[in-house]
Known about the structure:
Structural class: alpha/beta
Bound molecules: flavin-adenine dinucleotide
CATH architecture of the largest domain: 3-Layer(bba) Sandwich
Radius of gyration: 22 Å
Low-confidence stretches: 1-13
Number of strands: 21
Number of helices: 17
Shape: globular
Amino acid sequence: MVTRRATIAGLGALATQLILPSAEAAAQEPPYQLGEWTGDSFTPMHAIRDGLWRAPLSAPERRVDVVVIGGGLAGLAVAALLRDRDVLVLERESDPGGVAKSERWREVDYALGSAYIVDISHPFMELYETLGLAPRPVSEPVDRALSVAAGAGDPREREWRGGYERLKALLRRLGESPDFPKIPIGEATESALALDQLSLHEFLRREQIDAELFGLLDAYSLSALGAPTAEISAYAGVNFLSEINAPIYAFPGGNAAIARALAARISRAGEGRIVTGAAVYAIEPAEGGYARVGWFDARHPKEPRCLEARWTVVAAPYFFAGRILRGVDPAATAQMTRLRQGSYLVANCCFEGPPAALPYDSWALGAQSFSDAISATAVLPAAERPKDHSVLTVYAPFRDPRAGRARLLAGERAAFAAPIVEELRRFMPEAFGKARLAEVRLTRWGHHHLIAAPGIIATMRALPKRFGNVLLAHSDGQGMPAVESAIVEARNAVEIITKG
Length: 500
Ligand SMILES: Cc1cc2nc3c(=O)[nH]c(=O)nc-3n(C[C@H](O)[C@H](O)[C@H](O)COP(=O)(O)OP(=O)(O)OC[C@H]3O[C@@H](n4cnc5c(N)ncnc54)[C@H](O)[C@@H]3O)c2cc1C
């Protein structure tokens, strides 16, 4: 059993996903089922990387008013807001949603990635209401995360209490100030922009936040923004961390509920408007202000297709958009392709038997193979929670994104699942109390997390988001991987298109 002392000593050693299972554990058949991979399908993107992006475009088969590349939250929001026009979404995966997807195990909806929302003020709540969604608060206004360390309870109690309260007071003060580092970044004040030049670590130490809190802060920062506090912009870090002073909200299955509602709205306006399995490999200018979009059916990479659009909205990550945009300022596309992306594993652990009463989000400080775990049923009213099964969504961002991608590509599911399960048993034994782990379902995200490094806000404010009638609208444009960023970027693109 890990003692509290051992846990605190281990806090400096943030090493998510560095451990491999012991040889003994790896050799044995796991005592739980292992589901097939969900998440990114790498083949079409690697076909583009390995040469297709240079291939000439074929003759256009059709013309549309607006084509949206990427059916994540940003792309779906663009298409839903423009549903009265001739709009088409090309999405490379077999389902829309991007990193906001969900699956179901025995009537429990669980997230494959994006889980909760923070901001329900204008204009976000209006969108949720229009979609018929009612965000449910999942934590009290105070102390969102429970930090669990093998029975040690919440380390923010006792000695940490004072430091944690000081952090909250600092964030509250910043939150009430006009200089709060907000989304949209276009509205940032000079003082807020100055934060972007510092790392979150530097800023919090300057504000005399206790060193002992950095175990929690680094884990949070890695999970939410792609790297520990020393490698993250203080602008992005303060914006995200401010959530510890307010309730957060969720839907069963996480933010996939937003994606589903957007997709339903688009489909109601016209069948066939979301084409899945359609990977775009090039966008180039055409006559009359149109753009040509080269794409292929993910199952047939050797049969390129092409369409023309009056407006093209690229709602795919910037690092990738920079590769497929032809005939635009090469300095801009070079900057886009240099943006660093994290890599991520999510393990959904399905339990049979009476569930433990768990808080929404539990942070496992000092754990080597994951950062936190969300109870998929905590969002349900107590009366609606199943009595004999439950799902824990375990988040495992890679500390080294490149090494993470290589391991994800190799795809050894048992080698990923074993250390996570081993550590889950140590850090959250109550989850296993009266229940049996029946199945582990793994999701891999190769490039789905922009790393919000110092200077990211300045970079994203300076990058052009319009090249003639080709617009960029991905959450990357706000420098922070969040639902709110996706919605802001979508609204900006829609405004330009609507004004003509
Ligand atoms: C594991 C994880 C957990 C997260 N948790 C939260 C959270 O709890 N709360 C929160 O606010 N944010 C969270 N985020 C971040 C947030 O969900 C995302 O920033 C947001 O959903 C991104 O939406 P998007 O549309 O901008 O991009 P994406 O979701 O990246 O969508 C881009 C879409 O483009 C498609 N695409 C890419 N290339 C091509 C191509 N060549 N042709 C066709 N289609 C293409 C992709 O398949 C994808 O569907 C999380 C992110 C991850 C990875």
